[in-house]
Design goal:
5-stranded antiparallel β-sheet; mainly beta
């Protein structure tokens, strides 16, 4: 079993839900932080979802308004992903948010 520390960087260039990270089928993962920067103009919302592969359903766990030129930690705590689960983000306005996620991936091989 190996612990792998990773970053998953993102640039939300549309208003669609975007897959930022997918947990491998041989692993579990802990999303330790999701940090988003509003690099565009205006105050706008960002939403975070956990797509539960076993339930084939996305569950929203965060929603924040981030002011122009500001940044924010989107998750209020750690998020656990099981095999093939996904971290997804959605911006209310395209080309506003960039950021990174700090992830601990626990590989069972």
């Amino acid at each position: 079993m190996a612990n792998i520390y990773k970053n998953a960087n993102f640039d939300l260039n549309s208003t669609s839900v975007i897959d930022v990270y997918t947990c491998p089928s041989n692993s579990r993962a802990i999303i330790q932080n999701i940090h988003a920067a509003n690099v565009g103009g205006g105050n706008t919302e960002i939403k975070a979802f956990l797509y539960d592969n076993s339930a084939t359903t996305a569950f929203q766990f965060a929603e924040h308004t981030v002011n122009s030129g500001d940044s924010k930690s989107i998750s209020d705590g750690s998020i656990v992903l099981e095999e093939n689960d996904k971290l997804q983000l959605q911006a209310a306005t395209a080309d506003i948010f960039e950021g990174t996620c700090a992830i601990l991936e626990i590989n069972r091989d």
